[in-house]
Design brief:
Length: 403
């Protein structure tokens, strides 16, 4: 297998032939973070009628500057009657504009005396009016297929009276932690053992990327157990993810097991951290009898970075969500110096948004075993292979605070 594949090559290989999962119905109260399987068209104009943007008085603009009798009181949720010229109506924010009125004056600008009110001069037509259909026109596309249902999108759906939408099924993930040394929190720690950081970290990221982790297992460092558990995982999941056991030592059984059961598409990337990352396919329950396999290196930082670079776009492809295909990128000034070798380095940085631009501060220890370099990281600064960076140089940063 060729040496050190570029990240972009690996990403194309991973996404090649991946189609969105089936659509299913979801109640909007339970659809937060889901992805629309089809476009939603507006049924209603929003707002559905001309209404007032202020508490005040509705009038015809030609009657500005005069004392006007106050004829009706229009609260939000109540209907308005026609307004004769030379009169005004008391109106409240959200109240329906009466036929005959074409503007609203806020009450702070009005002098009231008994049943009449004096309007200021020169009130423009349309002032403080929210016209029917200003936000949404009935029949227009409200949300495109592939939209992720965030707070604003859910509010927009509710504004149409919609209670259910068609969304993509959540990808089902099996997450296997390999290594005889790995112990779950809650168990006593023996000599040479460490607690499993990768499982909760990756479960959290996968849920954030819209997936369900349906199976987790600890895989001992032996070939038969690795094969057996990989085979079992491929039957229940759309994607099987392992951590550890993909490097070159004789205790690394994952690649061999993938080759024995299915096929290895790619191994060893020009990626730091994450060089031994492996991609492949297993026979299983996925589309056309194939389940995708992603073997993340065991070092927690390699898993963390690998999840953002590979698992997020893969979940995006399964969810039919183009926005998840790449991370938002921004340019920042490096507050650090570094040099890279043959691998592209994804340095964990915090970003300072100052008056004179954005500054990227790298965590001091960028070793792939140092998970504290991911805690509080805002972005990954991408340093190309064989490059050097001096303080003040522009660096491209991938924003990690995105959904
Ligand atoms: N001779 C070579 N050795 C190594 C190479 C190499 O090219 N030649 N590559 C190194 C690189 S780079 C990486 S990255 C690691 C990845 O190796 P594996 O994917 O086989 O991972 P393991 O050896 O199983 O584990 C690595 C490290 O991470 C710890 N680990 C594993 N799982 C977890 C977990 N769930 N939670 C917390 N920590 C975990 C594990 O104990 C090891 O310390 O290989 C290098 N070696
Ligand atoms: O590629 Mo490894 O994650 O550098 O240590």
């Amino acid at each position: 297998m060729a040496d050190l594949q570029p990240v972009e090559t690996a990403l194309s290989a991973l996404l090649e032939g991946v189609a969105p999962l089936e659509a299913e119905r979801a109640a909007i109260d339970a659809a937060s973070g889901r992805v629309l399987a089809e476009a939603v068209n507006a049924r209603l104009d929003v707002p559905p009628f001309d209404n007032s943007a202020m508490d005040g008085y509705a009038l015809h603009h030609a009657d500005a500057g005069r004392w006007l009798p106050v004829r009706q009181r229009i609260a939000a949720g109540h209907t308005a009657e026609a307004l004769e010229r030379g009169h005004c109506a008391r109106i409240f924010t959200g109240g329906e504009i009466p036929p005959g009125a074409d503007c609203v004056v806020m009450q702070e600008k009005v002098e009231v005396e008994g049943e009449r009110a004096r309007m200021p001069k020169d009130v423009p037509e349309g002032d403080n009016l929210r016209r029917r259909g200003r936000d949404v026109a009935a029949g227009s596309v409200l949300l495109d297929a592939g939209s992720r249902l965030d707070a604003a999108a859910l509010g927009h759906l509710a504004g149409q009276g919609i209670t259910e939408v068609m969304v993509r099924r959540r990808p089902r993930i099996a997450l296997l932690s390999t290594g005889d040394e790995i112990v779950d929190p809650g168990q006593p720690l023996g000599p040479g053992q460490i607690y499993n950081s990768n499982r909760p970290m990756l479960t959290t990221l996968l849920q954030r990327f819209g997936a369900d982790v349906v199976m987790t297992a600890a895989v001992p460092d032996d070939a038969p157990s690795t094969r057996h558990l990989l085979g079992e995982a491929a039957e229940v999941a759309d994607v099987v993810i392992t951590t550890g056991g993909v490097s070159v030592g004789e205790e690394d059984h994952v690649r061999g097991a993938v080759e024995a059961l299915g096929r290895l598409d790619l191994w060893r990337l020009a990626l730091r951290p994450g060089k031994p990352l492996a991609l492949g396919r297993l026979p299983g329950s996925g589309a056309s009898g194939e389940t995708r396999f992603v073997g993340l290196p065991g070092n927690p930082v390699s898993g963390y970075v690998g999840a953002w670079l590979f698992l997020r776009p893969l979940m995006g492809a399964l969810l039919g969500c183009p926005a998840m295909g790449s991370l938002p990128a921004l340019s920042a000034r490096a507050a650090f110096a570094t040099r890279t070798g043959p691998r592209q380095h994804y340095m964990r940085v915090t970003l300072d948004f100052g008056a004179d631009g954005i500054e990227a501060h790298a965590f001091a220890d960028q070793n792939s075993g140092v998970l504290s370099s991911c805690v509080g990281a805002d972005a990954l600064a991408v340093i190309p292979p064989e490059a050097s960076v001096a303080p003040g140089d522009a660096v491209r940063c991938l924003w990690l605070r995105a959904d």
